Amino acid sequence: MTDSEQTSVVITGANKGLGFEAARRLGKQGWTVFLGSRDEGRGRAAADKLAAGGADVVLVPLDVTSDESVAGAVRLVREHTDRLDVLINNAGAPGNIVAPADATAEEVHAVYDTNVYGPIRVTHAFLPLLRAARHPRVVMVSSGGGSFAVVTDPQQPVSKMHELAYSSSKAALNMITIRYAQALPEIKFNIATPERSPTASSPPPT
Ligand SMILES: NC(=O)c1ccc[n+]([C@@H]2O[C@H](COP(=O)([O-])OP(=O)(O)OC[C@H]3O[C@@H](n4cnc5c(N)ncnc54)[C@H](OP(=O)(O)O)[C@@H]3O)[C@@H](O)[C@H]2O)c1
């Protein structure tokens, strides 16, 4: 095991999209990036890309829906460090957009497994390593779609996107984050809600 003064971060679902971009930016800042990916091949390709740019990156096979996979991820991270400064629960499943009348519990469950139980599974497993850090932080990547205010605002396109699974999973994640923050004040919990940049076809709200 090697420990250092470098800030360390675990990012779930970091083989592409926002997770990959966060990994790239934090790697550039000299952080040790534990790049989570449920698919080892896709994760290896992403990690190699960042390593080629000079990042200190370790591929961590991590499927947030599997207790076994998450336990393996913790074991691997422990081989490199005895503390974890930051955990970013980024992995997310959009699910299919199914009208509420047609949605089944099975479909909703699959989305919750990634977006709700996933962050709980991962946060719970990494708590001992987080608690060993001086200023531990957990970031939950949520969505404006999980906000009651946004979803009930007729000006917001998401108010007309009729589905159950994704928005309710992110609303649950928001509450879970608040409850963690209240119960574990020694760890800073943050909710991040990414937004697409405004374009000419979608001007910013006035
Ligand atoms: N992009 C946006 O505009 C936006 C807006 C609001 C919120 N968000 C949230 O931001 C986060 C990232 O979104 P994104 O746009 O970057 O999505 P993305 O490009 O689809 O990437 C999602 C990542 O999550 C991974 N993932 C899915 N299920 C997983 C599982 N069971 N275990 C581990 N990893 C899993 C995917 O892995 P695979 O490659 O193997 O599928 C992928 O790496 C999500 O939580 C999303 O809800 C995004």
From TrEMBL:
Pfam families membership: adh_short
Q: Which keywords does this chain's UniProt record carry?
A: NADP, Oxidoreductase
Q: Which InterPro entries match?
A: NAD(P)-bd_dom_sf, SDR_fam
| Gene Ontology molecular functions | oxidoreductase activity
Q: Which Gene3D superfamilies match?
A: NAD(P)-binding Rossmann-like Domain
Is the keyword NADP in the record? yes
Q: Output the superkingdom of the source species.
A: Bacteria
Matching SUPFAM superfamilies:
NAD(P)-binding Rossmann-fold domains
Instruction: Give the UniProt family note.
Output: Belongs to the short-chain dehydrogenases/reductases (SDR) family.
Provide the protein name.
SDR family NAD(P)-dependent oxidoreductase
Organism equals Phytohabitans rumicis
